[in-house]
Amino acid sequence: MELSSFIKLLVRHKFTLIIIPLVTVIITYFLVRNQPDTYTSNAQLATGLVDQTQQSLSIAGEVLQDSRISQEFSNLIAMIKSKKMLDQVSYQLMIHDLTSATPFRKPSKLMEQLNSNAKKHAVEVYTSYYNKRQSLSLFNSDQKGLYELIKSMKYDDESVLQKLLIYRADNSDFIDLQYDSENPNLSALLINDLCKEFIQYYTLLVKDNQHKAVTFYGDLMKAKEDSLNVRMNRLKTYKIQNRVLNLNEQARALYGQIADFETRAEEAQKNTISTLAAIRDIDKQFDPADRKYVESSMIKLSQQVLNTRFQLQRLNSEYVQSSFNPAIKRQLDSLNSVLTGQIYQNSDTYTVNPLSSKQHLIEQKLALQIQYDLSQNSVKSIQNELNRLNVRLNTLVPHEAVVQADENAINVAHDEYIDALNKYNQSQLQSNFSVQLRQIEMAMPGTAQPSKKMLLVIISGIISFVFCIVVLFILFYLDNSVKTPNELANTTKIPVLGYLHKLKGSSLDLRQIWTGAQTDQDTQLFKNLLQSIRYEVDHDLHENKVLLINSLTAAEGKTFLALNLAYAYALINKNVLLIDGNFNAPGITEAVKAKYFLEDYLSGKLSAENLVAASKVSVLGNKGGDISLLQLDTEHNITNAFNALKAQFDIIIIEASALSTLNKSKEWIDFTDKIVTVFKAGQTIKGTRKQQVNYLKSLDAHFSGWVLNEVDKNQLPAS
Question: Which GO terms describe its cellular component (predicted)?
């Protein structure tokens, strides 16, 4: 339904949809007919970012992430489009057009105003700033004028960028450049100059950065090397001054010796204790007299044994101090054998009590006594040697701390030096390679591109046509006015009894419409629609007789409906009384030139029988004025007066004023049986109208429904 309504709207505005696109096409044609042809030139740059054959040794094998590659290409493209690069090209183009007899473009009005001196000055300034790779300052009046001159020739960066296309070719290593202009030589020269300037600037920038990197890493490497040499010399001096050779080996040897001496000290201590215990056991086997005798006898032993014991103790001390030298051990064993022989020789001497035979015990005691003395001497010698080794170890600890700290510092300095050396070698290697960026495809003057004039003309027509449709659709979508009976019923949720279409002509003769023998198709349709409304009203009235016709606002056609409905009832042989109850605008009274007035009837000057006319339609007008129905008489008298009218007439049709007049319209409702409200098509229901619709709904069965007036037949659905 909505689609068909929109299509009907388009049909109604068909001339608008034809004329506007046609005018647009004509205007576009005259605008583009003198447009020059376009020539396109293309060039291509190889970057060496993803092409492994172009990678230098320093970065060969390095795999770049896609995000980093995209960023590199974005940086390069942004650098090409930068004002610094485009200004260099602008300077060259301006110098060419100012000095050449065949400029690329027709001189602008501003350039035509320049004299020879001004042109010479402009060339000098452009050349100077081109060599210095600088942009013109807009704060300087002279340079600002020169910039305006460039802009007038459309050689400025903004104008160039409008026709310049720079992009990465798919995911390749190449950057494509394209420029369109009206001159093939201009297109080719601009692209080639832009590539040349960019490559020169990029190479200069890269080489300068590489030179700075080599210098920086060279100085850093030298500083790290000097720091490493200073730390190494300081450690060497410290070792020489403190006679330090290899602290780790010395400490390891001392730890080994100390562990060995501690083990031997434990063994000597055990031997001492066990030997002393054995001597005490032997002494317990002698009684005091024997022990006294033995001790006195032992004093008399040979001086040779004593001397040998002293030599044995001295040799045992040397053995310990020599870290248990095997040669001394052999001497010690030999001296032990000598001492044993001396003891056995002295044992043959009678040293015991003749009354007792304890010679063997005495020999054991003598041997144990010698062994005890040797053990005690060994413990003392070993302990002295342990003390001496601990003293040596303690002297190594401060040296170890200093040496270890210096060695750690040397290791750190060495790592820093190696890192700086590697970076220096890498930066120096990179500086020896040429920049991979190069132009592999030169821009050539191209042929004229296919003309877009006709395409622009067609597109303008299509766009204007679509624009008109969009505008009409927006108007259609935003249009909330009621145009058809269905829309009125759906909007108000109240039945629609019928509708009347809009008749042609400024004035209508109702008698001719209803009594004329010949009528046109439009008039016949009107009569059919009105008869249909009459049938619906008559069916809703049933046995009731009083029908009230009103509207929401004035001038909606209720007078027109009331008159025609009266004629429609007269055609079916009904005695009709038409009452003009609109005191504000008595339209019926004026239309039929009424002879009888409501005020006279209610005052008793007229009777109901006097109102009956032979033409089946009687009219009771009013004298107008700012009054209402209840101001004419009481409610009881008015009711009686209407009862008398019901007895004389088959149907009574009353036109009341619009509901916007408030009580003047609503007072009639109490004296009527049914209400029909006229609504003029093309209006919206909102605000006050919405409140009036709610009031009509509150009347329930008393309200019959709507009659939609002045409906456009084109808005109605096809039957």
Answer: plasma membrane
- pLDDT for 353 equals 46
Q: pLDDT tens digits for 249-267?
A: 666 666 666 776 667 767 7
How is 488-518 classified by DSSP, letter by letter?
HHHHH-S-EEEEEEPPSSS---HHHHHH-S-
Using CA atoms, how far residue 189 sits from 157, 168, 273, in Å, is 15, 21, 112
Q: Is the pLDDT of residue 34 over 70?
A: no
Query: Cβ(9)–Cβ(476) under 8 Å?
Result: yes
Give tens-digit pLDDT for 332-362.
667 667 666 666 555 555 444 444 445 566 6
As a whole number of angstroms, the longest Cα–Cα distance in the chain is 200
| Token output for 530 | 């009105």
**Residue 685 — φ and ψ, nearest 5°?**
-110, 100
pLDDT at 150 over 70: yes
**Cα–Cα distance for residue pair 606/643, rounded to 1 Å:** 15
Q: How far apart are CA 48 and CA 448, in angstroms?
A: 33
pLDDT digits (tens, 9 = 90+) for 261-318: 667 767 767 777 777 776 676 766 665 555 554 444 444 445 566 666 666 667 666 6
Residue 86's identity, in one-letter code, is L
Residue 170 region by backbone torsions, left for phi larger than 0, else alpha for psi between -120 and 50, else beta? left
Are the C-beta atoms of residues 403 and 235 closer than 8 Å to each other? yes
Tokens 């032997």 correspond to 282
Tell me which of 83 and 362 has the higher pLDDT: 83
Q: What is the CB neighbour count within 10 angstroms for residue 415?
A: 12
Mean pLDDT of 671-690: 90
Angstrom distance (rounded) from CA 396 to CA 250? 8
Strands 576-581, 651-656: pairing is parallel
Q: Let me know the angle formed at the C-alpha of 526 by 523 and 530, rounded to the nearest 5 degrees.
A: 145
Instruction: Give the phi and the psi of residue 544 in degrees, each rounded to 5.
Output: -80, 165
- Which element (helix H / strand E) includes 708? strand 703-711
Q: Which of 111-120, 391-400, 684-693 has the lowest mean pLDDT?
A: 391-400
Q: Which helix (H) or strand (E) holds 284?
A: helix 247-284
Report the distance separating Cα 616 and Cα 574, nearest Å: 7
Enumerate residues 6+ apart whose C-beta is below 8 A from 686. 480
What is the rounded distance in angstroms from the CA atom of residue 200 to the CA atom of residue 673?
A: 100
Task: Look up residue 140 and give its amino acid.
Answer: N
Q: Alpha-carbon distance 369 to 307, whole Å?
A: 15
CA–CA gap between residue 182 and residue 131 (Å, rounded): 28
The radius of gyration of the chain's CA atoms, rounded to the nearest angstrom, is 65
CA distance 497 to 138: 78
Listed residue (181, 153, 177) closest to 167, CA to CA? 177
Distances, alpha carbon 295 to alpha carbons 283, 301, 666, 704, in Å: 11, 10, 162, 161
Predicted pLDDT of residue 274: 74
Q: Angle 558-489-675 (CA atoms, 0-180°, nearest 5)?
A: 40
How large is the average pLDDT for residues 464-490? 86
Residue written as token pair 């109240």? 494
Strands (E), 48-161: none
Q: Residue ranges of the alpha helices (H) in 285-358?
A: 288-298, 303-321, 326-347
Query: Would you state the pLDDT for residue 297?
Result: 46
